[in-house]
Amino acid sequence: MSSSINKQDLEAMSSFRYELRKFLRVSEEVCNAAGITTLQYQLLLHVRGFPERRWATVGELAERLQAAPNGTAALVSRCETAGLVTRKTDKTDRRQVQVHLTAKGERCLLRLAAEHKAHYGSFGWVFGPQEV
């Protein structure tokens, strides 16, 4: 198995991990300066960025965050306490709970997303090459 990994593979993996770590470090700094955690930011991003909707269920958020549903529910509760999100019972399936951004959550997300997008520019794989 190890013979299928060559120097070029290792360099590529190292470069990817380096660029990813640089981004994560900057993201932590941006979020902390705004007074929220990176997980809270990611939750806001996934709520608003869910395809074809402006909300997501706790289960969908757990999948996007790669976290346990009970941990995600606790994160939603912390965001709700902070006034960033609100929960709504699904009208067609009362077992499902929708998570929506509040106006405060939307403002916070858009401000932080703009800062993150500026840093994503160095990662061509996110938005593609940036024009100058």
UniProtKB/TrEMBL annotation:
PROSITE patterns: HTH_MARR_2. Residues 1-132 form the HTH marR-type domain. It holds the Pfam family MarR_2. GO terms for biological process: response to stress. SMART domains: HTH_MARR. One of its GO terms (molecular function) is DNA-binding transcription factor activity. This is MarR family transcriptional regulator. The lineage of its organism: Bacteria, Pseudomonadati, Pseudomonadota, Betaproteobacteria, Burkholderiales.
